[in-house]
Protein backbone atom coordinates (compact mmCIF):
# COMPACT_ATOMS: atom_id res chain seq x y z
CA UNK A 1 0.00 0.00 0.00
CA UNK A 2 2.76 2.42 0.94
CA UNK A 3 4.72 1.81 -2.26
CA UNK A 4 1.61 2.25 -4.42
CA UNK A 5 0.62 5.41 -2.51
CA UNK A 6 3.97 7.13 -2.96
CA UNK A 7 4.10 6.07 -6.58
CA UNK A 8 0.74 7.79 -7.19
CA UNK A 9 1.87 10.90 -5.30
CA UNK A 10 5.07 11.16 -7.37
CA UNK A 11 3.15 10.63 -10.60
CA UNK A 12 0.64 13.34 -9.71
CA UNK A 13 3.47 15.73 -8.74
CA UNK A 14 5.25 15.06 -12.02
CA UNK A 15 2.03 15.72 -13.97
CA UNK A 16 1.48 18.99 -12.08
CA UNK A 17 5.01 20.22 -12.87
CA UNK A 18 4.60 19.23 -16.49
CA UNK A 19 1.33 21.20 -16.68
CA UNK A 20 3.04 24.23 -15.10
CA UNK A 21 5.81 23.96 -17.66
CA UNK A 22 3.30 23.82 -20.51
CA UNK A 23 1.50 26.88 -19.15
CA UNK A 24 4.79 28.75 -18.79
CA UNK A 25 5.84 27.85 -22.32
CA UNK A 26 2.47 28.94 -23.70
CA UNK A 27 2.75 32.31 -21.99
CA UNK A 28 5.90 33.15 -23.96
CA UNK A 29 4.92 35.16 -27.04
CA UNK A 30 6.37 34.26 -30.41
CA UNK A 31 8.52 36.87 -32.13
CA UNK A 32 6.28 36.62 -35.18
CA UNK A 33 2.94 36.65 -33.35
CA UNK A 34 0.46 39.39 -34.27
CA UNK A 35 -0.79 41.52 -31.39
CA UNK A 36 -3.50 44.18 -31.24
CA UNK A 37 -2.14 47.71 -31.19
CA UNK A 38 -3.28 49.71 -28.16
CA UNK A 39 -6.14 52.10 -28.85
CA UNK A 40 -7.29 50.23 -31.95
CA UNK A 41 -9.84 47.47 -32.42
CA UNK A 42 -8.84 46.33 -35.90
CA UNK A 43 -5.15 47.17 -36.32
CA UNK A 44 -2.63 44.44 -35.60
CA UNK A 45 1.14 44.66 -35.68
CA UNK A 46 3.88 42.06 -35.54
CA UNK A 47 5.35 41.41 -32.15
CA UNK A 48 9.15 41.32 -32.12
CA UNK A 49 12.20 43.58 -32.10
CA UNK A 50 11.59 47.32 -32.07
CA UNK A 51 11.31 48.85 -35.56
CA UNK A 52 13.62 51.76 -36.35
CA UNK A 53 12.22 53.03 -39.66
CA UNK A 54 9.03 53.47 -41.66
CA UNK A 55 9.82 50.61 -44.05
CA UNK A 56 6.93 48.20 -44.53
CA UNK A 57 9.19 45.37 -43.29
CA UNK A 58 12.74 45.18 -41.89
CA UNK A 59 13.96 43.94 -45.30
CA UNK A 60 12.43 44.78 -48.68
CA UNK A 61 13.49 43.16 -51.96
CA UNK A 62 13.16 45.13 -55.19
CA UNK A 63 13.15 42.95 -58.31
CA UNK A 64 12.93 44.09 -61.91
CA UNK A 65 16.39 44.50 -63.38
CA UNK A 66 17.41 42.19 -66.21
CA UNK A 67 21.15 42.34 -65.52
CA UNK A 68 23.76 43.13 -62.88
CA UNK A 69 22.82 46.19 -60.83
CA UNK A 70 25.93 48.35 -60.61
CA UNK A 71 24.70 51.51 -58.90
CA UNK A 72 21.91 52.89 -56.73
CA UNK A 73 21.17 56.21 -55.04
CA UNK A 74 18.51 57.59 -52.71
CA UNK A 75 16.79 60.78 -53.79
CA UNK A 76 17.76 63.68 -51.47
CA UNK A 77 14.21 63.80 -50.02
CA UNK A 78 14.35 60.11 -49.10
CA UNK A 79 11.01 59.24 -50.67
CA UNK A 80 12.35 57.32 -53.67
CA UNK A 81 15.53 55.82 -55.10
CA UNK A 82 17.03 55.04 -58.49
CA UNK A 83 19.02 51.99 -59.60
CA UNK A 84 20.72 51.00 -62.83
CA UNK A 85 23.31 48.69 -64.31
CA UNK A 86 24.01 46.32 -67.16
CA UNK A 87 20.46 46.45 -68.53
CA UNK A 88 20.92 50.20 -69.24
CA UNK A 89 17.60 51.10 -67.57
CA UNK A 90 17.30 53.69 -64.80
CA UNK A 91 14.52 52.35 -62.56
CA UNK A 92 12.79 54.50 -59.95
CA UNK A 93 11.33 52.89 -56.81
CA UNK A 94 9.33 54.15 -53.86
CA UNK A 95 11.08 53.68 -50.53
CA UNK A 96 7.91 53.14 -48.47
CA UNK A 97 4.83 50.96 -48.81
CA UNK A 98 5.32 48.10 -51.27
CA UNK A 99 8.40 49.76 -52.80
CA UNK A 100 6.83 49.61 -56.24
CA UNK A 101 8.64 50.61 -59.41
CA UNK A 102 6.99 53.82 -60.66
CA UNK A 103 9.28 55.05 -63.41
CA UNK A 104 11.95 54.17 -65.93
CA UNK A 105 14.38 56.21 -68.03
CA UNK A 106 16.10 54.77 -71.08
CA UNK A 107 18.62 56.12 -73.55
CA UNK A 108 22.02 54.69 -72.73
CA UNK A 109 23.33 52.06 -75.15
CA UNK A 110 25.71 50.37 -72.71
CA UNK A 111 25.95 49.68 -68.99
CA UNK A 112 25.36 52.53 -66.55
CA UNK A 113 28.36 52.77 -64.23
CA UNK A 114 27.43 55.49 -61.73
CA UNK A 115 24.73 58.08 -60.98
CA UNK A 116 24.56 61.33 -59.03
CA UNK A 117 21.72 63.68 -58.01
CA UNK A 118 22.13 67.43 -57.86
CA UNK A 119 21.61 69.06 -54.45
CA UNK A 120 17.83 69.52 -54.61
CA UNK A 121 17.16 66.28 -56.47
CA UNK A 122 15.63 67.91 -59.54
CA UNK A 123 18.33 66.60 -61.90
CA UNK A 124 20.00 63.20 -62.23
CA UNK A 125 23.34 62.55 -63.92
CA UNK A 126 24.30 59.11 -65.25
CA UNK A 127 27.65 57.87 -66.55
CA UNK A 128 27.86 54.96 -68.94
CA UNK A 129 30.16 52.63 -70.81
CA UNK A 130 28.63 54.09 -73.99
CA UNK A 131 31.15 56.98 -73.54
CA UNK A 132 28.50 59.54 -72.55
CA UNK A 133 27.13 61.35 -69.50
CA UNK A 134 23.40 62.04 -69.58
CA UNK A 135 21.52 64.78 -67.76
CA UNK A 136 17.90 64.00 -66.81
CA UNK A 137 15.18 66.43 -65.71
CA UNK A 138 13.23 64.54 -63.05
CA UNK A 139 10.34 66.99 -63.12
CA UNK A 140 9.47 66.14 -66.71
CA UNK A 141 11.20 62.74 -66.96
CA UNK A 142 13.06 63.92 -70.05
CA UNK A 143 16.72 63.89 -71.00
CA UNK A 144 18.12 67.43 -70.99
CA UNK A 145 21.58 66.80 -72.44
CA UNK A 146 23.79 64.04 -73.75
CA UNK A 147 27.36 65.05 -72.93
CA UNK A 148 29.96 63.74 -75.35
CA UNK A 149 33.68 64.17 -74.76
CA UNK A 150 35.06 60.88 -73.54
CA UNK A 151 36.61 58.48 -76.05
CA UNK A 152 36.15 55.38 -73.90
CA UNK A 153 34.05 54.00 -71.02
CA UNK A 154 32.91 56.63 -68.50
CA UNK A 155 33.48 55.10 -65.07
CA UNK A 156 32.29 57.79 -62.69
CA UNK A 157 30.25 60.98 -62.39
CA UNK A 158 29.69 63.47 -59.57
CA UNK A 159 27.82 66.77 -59.22
CA UNK A 160 28.94 69.85 -57.29
CA UNK A 161 27.34 70.45 -53.90
CA UNK A 162 27.19 74.23 -54.29
CA UNK A 163 27.73 77.01 -56.79
CA UNK A 164 27.16 76.66 -60.56
CA UNK A 165 25.68 73.37 -61.87
CA UNK A 166 29.01 71.64 -62.47
CA UNK A 167 29.54 67.95 -63.14
CA UNK A 168 32.78 65.98 -63.25
CA UNK A 169 33.28 62.66 -65.01
CA UNK A 170 36.22 60.29 -65.51
CA UNK A 171 36.90 57.27 -67.66
CA UNK A 172 39.14 54.70 -69.25
CA UNK A 173 40.43 57.34 -71.68
CA UNK A 174 42.50 58.73 -68.76
CA UNK A 175 40.60 62.02 -68.84
CA UNK A 176 38.78 63.97 -66.14
CA UNK A 177 36.18 66.29 -67.66
CA UNK A 178 34.42 69.12 -65.86
CA UNK A 179 31.07 70.05 -67.42
CA UNK A 180 28.79 73.03 -66.93
CA UNK A 181 25.21 71.80 -67.21
CA UNK A 182 24.27 74.97 -69.08
CA UNK A 183 26.65 74.11 -71.93
CA UNK A 184 27.22 71.13 -74.19
CA UNK A 185 31.00 71.29 -74.48
CA UNK A 186 33.44 70.49 -71.65
CA UNK A 187 34.38 73.41 -69.41
CA UNK A 188 37.74 71.85 -68.54
CA UNK A 189 39.61 68.65 -69.40
CA UNK A 190 42.40 67.19 -67.25
CA UNK A 191 44.63 64.35 -68.39
CA UNK A 192 45.89 61.57 -66.14
CA UNK A 193 48.59 59.04 -67.13
CA UNK A 194 46.31 56.11 -66.21
CA UNK A 195 42.64 55.17 -66.34
CA UNK A 196 40.51 57.01 -63.77
CA UNK A 197 37.91 54.81 -62.09
CA UNK A 198 36.33 57.22 -59.59
CA UNK A 199 35.98 60.97 -59.17
CA UNK A 200 34.38 63.47 -56.79
CA UNK A 201 34.37 67.22 -56.16
CA UNK A 202 35.59 68.68 -52.91
CA UNK A 203 33.08 70.64 -50.82
CA UNK A 204 33.59 73.97 -52.61
CA UNK A 205 33.87 72.48 -56.13
CA UNK A 206 37.24 74.20 -56.53
CA UNK A 207 39.05 70.89 -56.49
CA UNK A 208 38.50 67.44 -57.98
CA UNK A 209 39.61 64.23 -56.26
CA UNK A 210 40.36 61.18 -58.42
CA UNK A 211 41.34 57.55 -57.99
CA UNK A 212 42.44 55.04 -60.59
CA UNK A 213 44.53 52.04 -61.51
CA UNK A 214 47.79 53.73 -60.45
CA UNK A 215 46.69 53.25 -56.78
CA UNK A 216 47.14 56.96 -55.94
CA UNK A 217 44.43 59.42 -54.95
CA UNK A 218 45.05 62.81 -56.56
CA UNK A 219 43.67 66.21 -55.70
CA UNK A 220 43.44 68.60 -58.67
CA UNK A 221 43.18 72.40 -58.50
CA UNK A 222 40.64 73.44 -61.15
CA UNK A 223 41.89 77.03 -61.20
CA UNK A 224 45.41 75.94 -62.12
CA UNK A 225 44.43 72.77 -64.03
CA UNK A 226 47.17 70.93 -62.16
CA UNK A 227 47.64 68.33 -59.42
CA UNK A 228 47.88 69.85 -55.94
CA UNK A 229 49.04 66.70 -54.13
CA UNK A 230 48.81 62.92 -54.08
CA UNK A 231 47.72 60.63 -51.28
CA UNK A 232 49.53 57.30 -51.29
CA UNK A 233 48.72 54.21 -49.26
CA UNK A 234 46.60 51.87 -51.36
CA UNK A 235 48.46 48.98 -52.98
CA UNK A 236 45.94 48.32 -55.75
CA UNK A 237 43.42 50.11 -57.94
CA UNK A 238 40.99 52.53 -56.30
CA UNK A 239 37.41 51.64 -57.27
CA UNK A 240 35.34 54.15 -55.30
CA UNK A 241 35.54 57.61 -53.73
CA UNK A 242 33.03 59.46 -51.53
CA UNK A 243 33.24 62.88 -49.88
CA UNK A 244 32.14 63.09 -46.24
CA UNK A 245 28.98 65.09 -45.40
CA UNK A 246 31.02 67.91 -43.86
CA UNK A 247 33.47 67.97 -46.78
CA UNK A 248 36.55 67.43 -44.62
CA UNK A 249 37.36 63.82 -45.53
CA UNK A 250 37.23 61.52 -48.52
CA UNK A 251 36.53 57.79 -48.32
CA UNK A 252 38.26 55.40 -50.73
CA UNK A 253 37.67 51.73 -51.56
CA UNK A 254 40.44 49.79 -53.31
CA UNK A 255 41.29 46.34 -54.62
CA UNK A 256 43.86 45.88 -51.83
CA UNK A 257 40.82 45.05 -49.64
CA UNK A 258 41.08 48.21 -47.57
CA UNK A 259 38.75 51.14 -47.05
CA UNK A 260 40.50 54.37 -46.05
CA UNK A 261 39.56 57.83 -44.80
CA UNK A 262 41.75 60.73 -45.93
CA UNK A 263 41.88 64.26 -44.53
CA UNK A 264 41.46 66.69 -47.44
CA UNK A 265 41.28 69.91 -45.45
CA UNK A 266 43.67 72.63 -46.68
CA UNK A 267 46.09 72.59 -43.77
CA UNK A 268 45.98 68.92 -42.79
CA UNK A 269 49.18 67.10 -41.76
CA UNK A 270 51.33 65.55 -44.45
CA UNK A 271 50.10 62.06 -43.52
CA UNK A 272 46.49 62.43 -44.59
CA UNK A 273 45.30 58.83 -44.12
CA UNK A 274 43.52 58.87 -40.75
CA UNK A 275 41.55 55.60 -40.70
CA UNK A 276 41.84 52.15 -42.33
CA UNK A 277 38.97 49.63 -42.38
CA UNK A 278 39.12 45.98 -43.36
CA UNK A 279 36.75 43.03 -43.68
CA UNK A 280 35.31 43.35 -47.19
CA UNK A 281 36.79 41.72 -50.29
CA UNK A 282 37.56 42.33 -53.95
CA UNK A 283 37.84 39.46 -56.42
CA UNK A 284 39.05 38.49 -59.88
CA UNK A 285 35.90 40.13 -61.30
CA UNK A 286 37.58 43.51 -60.68
CA UNK A 287 34.24 45.29 -60.39
CA UNK A 288 34.09 48.98 -59.51
CA UNK A 289 32.95 48.50 -55.93
CA UNK A 290 31.87 51.84 -54.48
CA UNK A 291 31.80 53.29 -50.96
CA UNK A 292 29.65 55.80 -49.09
CA UNK A 293 29.04 57.74 -45.86
CA UNK A 294 25.93 57.89 -43.73
CA UNK A 295 24.28 61.33 -43.63
CA UNK A 296 25.66 62.03 -40.14
CA UNK A 297 29.15 60.78 -40.99
CA UNK A 298 29.12 58.20 -38.19
CA UNK A 299 29.15 55.15 -40.48
CA UNK A 300 30.76 54.12 -43.74
CA UNK A 301 30.09 51.27 -46.13
CA UNK A 302 31.82 49.55 -49.03
CA UNK A 303 30.85 47.18 -51.79
CA UNK A 304 32.26 43.68 -51.49
CA UNK A 305 32.62 40.59 -53.66
CA UNK A 306 31.82 38.24 -50.74
CA UNK A 307 28.07 38.92 -51.22
CA UNK A 308 27.72 40.75 -47.90
CA UNK A 309 26.86 44.32 -46.94
CA UNK A 310 29.67 45.77 -44.80
CA UNK A 311 29.14 48.78 -42.53
CA UNK A 312 31.73 50.21 -40.12
CA UNK A 313 31.65 52.70 -37.26
CA UNK A 314 33.89 55.63 -38.23
CA UNK A 315 35.02 56.37 -34.68
CA UNK A 316 35.91 52.89 -33.44
CA UNK A 317 36.62 51.40 -36.90
CA UNK A 318 34.58 48.36 -35.79
CA UNK A 319 32.69 46.34 -38.39
CA UNK A 320 29.18 46.70 -36.96
CA UNK A 321 27.18 45.04 -39.76
CA UNK A 322 27.98 42.19 -42.13
CA UNK A 323 24.61 41.47 -43.68
CA UNK A 324 23.93 38.44 -45.93
CA UNK A 325 21.20 38.00 -48.53
CA UNK A 326 22.72 38.70 -51.93
CA UNK A 327 23.84 35.92 -54.27
CA UNK A 328 26.41 38.02 -56.11
CA UNK A 329 28.98 40.73 -55.51
CA UNK A 330 27.57 43.81 -53.76
CA UNK A 331 28.54 46.76 -55.97
CA UNK A 332 27.24 49.70 -53.99
CA UNK A 333 25.63 50.48 -50.64
CA UNK A 334 23.81 53.76 -50.04
CA UNK A 335 22.50 55.26 -46.80
CA UNK A 336 19.05 56.83 -46.59
CA UNK A 337 19.37 60.61 -46.03
CA UNK A 338 16.96 60.69 -43.07
CA UNK A 339 16.30 57.20 -41.66
CA UNK A 340 18.41 54.19 -40.59
CA UNK A 341 17.91 52.41 -43.92
CA UNK A 342 20.55 51.09 -46.30
CA UNK A 343 20.19 50.10 -49.94
CA UNK A 344 22.43 47.49 -51.55
CA UNK A 345 22.70 46.59 -55.25
CA UNK A 346 24.30 43.46 -56.58
CA UNK A 347 25.33 41.32 -59.52
CA UNK A 348 22.44 39.01 -58.61
CA UNK A 349 20.08 41.59 -60.24
CA UNK A 350 18.47 42.34 -56.89
CA UNK A 351 18.11 45.49 -54.79
CA UNK A 352 17.61 45.26 -51.03
CA UNK A 353 16.41 47.85 -48.55
CA UNK A 354 17.41 46.97 -45.02
CA UNK A 355 16.58 48.53 -41.66
CA UNK A 356 19.48 49.08 -39.26
CA UNK A 357 19.64 50.47 -35.75
From TrEMBL:
<protein>
    <recommendedName>
        <fullName>U5 small nuclear ribonucleoprotein 40 kDa protein</fullName>
    </recommendedName>
</protein>
<feature type="repeat" description="WD">
    <location>
        <begin position="323"/>
        <end position="357"/>
    </location>
</feature>
<dbReference type="GO" id="GO:0005682">
    <property type="term" value="C:U5 snRNP"/>
</dbReference>
<dbReference type="GO" id="GO:0003723">
    <property type="term" value="F:RNA binding"/>
</dbReference>
<keyword id="KW-0539">Nucleus</keyword>
<keyword id="KW-0687">Ribonucleoprotein</keyword>
<dbReference type="InterPro" id="IPR052234">
    <property type="entry name" value="U5_snRNP_Component"/>
</dbReference>
<feature type="repeat" description="WD">
    <location>
        <begin position="292"/>
        <end position="322"/>
    </location>
</feature>
<keyword id="KW-0507">mRNA processing</keyword>
<dbReference type="InterPro" id="IPR019775">
    <property type="entry name" value="WD40_repeat_CS"/>
</dbReference>
<dbReference type="GO" id="GO:0000375">
    <property type="term" value="P:RNA splicing, via transesterification reactions"/>
</dbReference>
<dbReference type="InterPro" id="IPR036322">
    <property type="entry name" value="WD40_repeat_dom_sf"/>
</dbReference>
<comment type="function">
    <text>Required for pre-mRNA splicing as component of the activated spliceosome. Component of the U5 small nuclear ribonucleoprotein (snRNP) complex and the U4/U6-U5 tri-snRNP complex, building blocks of the spliceosome. As a component of the minor spliceosome, involved in the splicing of U12-type introns in pre-mRNAs.</text>
</comment>
<feature type="repeat" description="WD">
    <location>
        <begin position="231"/>
        <end position="265"/>
    </location>
</feature>
<dbReference type="InterPro" id="IPR001680">
    <property type="entry name" value="WD40_rpt"/>
</dbReference>
<dbReference type="Pfam" id="PF00400">
    <property type="entry name" value="WD40"/>
</dbReference>
<feature type="repeat" description="WD">
    <location>
        <begin position="147"/>
        <end position="189"/>
    </location>
</feature>
<feature type="repeat" description="WD">
    <location>
        <begin position="62"/>
        <end position="95"/>
    </location>
</feature>
<comment type="subunit">
    <text>Component of the pre-catalytic and catalytic spliceosome complexes. Component of the postcatalytic spliceosome P complex. Part of the U5 snRNP complex. Interacts with PRPF8. Component of the U4/U6-U5 tri-snRNP complex composed of the U4, U6 and U5 snRNAs and at least PRPF3, PRPF4, PRPF6, PRPF8, PRPF31, SNRNP200, TXNL4A, WDR57, SNRNP40, DDX23, CD2BP2, PPIH, SNU13, EFTUD2, SART1 and USP39. Component of the minor spliceosome, which splices U12-type introns.</text>
</comment>
<keyword id="KW-0508">mRNA splicing</keyword>
<dbReference type="GO" id="GO:0071013">
    <property type="term" value="C:catalytic step 2 spliceosome"/>
</dbReference>
<keyword id="KW-0853">WD repeat</keyword>
<feature type="repeat" description="WD">
    <location>
        <begin position="196"/>
        <end position="230"/>
    </location>
</feature>
<dbReference type="GO" id="GO:0006397">
    <property type="term" value="P:mRNA processing"/>
</dbReference>
<dbReference type="InterPro" id="IPR015943">
    <property type="entry name" value="WD40/YVTN_repeat-like_dom_sf"/>
</dbReference>
<dbReference type="InterPro" id="IPR020472">
    <property type="entry name" value="WD40_PAC1"/>
</dbReference>
<feature type="repeat" description="WD">
    <location>
        <begin position="105"/>
        <end position="146"/>
    </location>
</feature>
<keyword id="KW-0677">Repeat</keyword>
Amino acid sequence: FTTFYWANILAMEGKRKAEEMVVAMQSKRSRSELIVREGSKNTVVAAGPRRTSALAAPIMQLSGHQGDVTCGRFHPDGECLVTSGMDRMLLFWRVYGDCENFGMLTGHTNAVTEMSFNTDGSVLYSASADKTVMVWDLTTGQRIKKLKGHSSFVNSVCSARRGPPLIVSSGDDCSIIVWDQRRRRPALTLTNPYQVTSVTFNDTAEQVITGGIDNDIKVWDLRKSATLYRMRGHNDSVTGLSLSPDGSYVLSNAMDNTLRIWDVRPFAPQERCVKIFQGHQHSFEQSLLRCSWSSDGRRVSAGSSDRHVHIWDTTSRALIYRLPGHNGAVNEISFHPKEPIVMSVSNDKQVFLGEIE
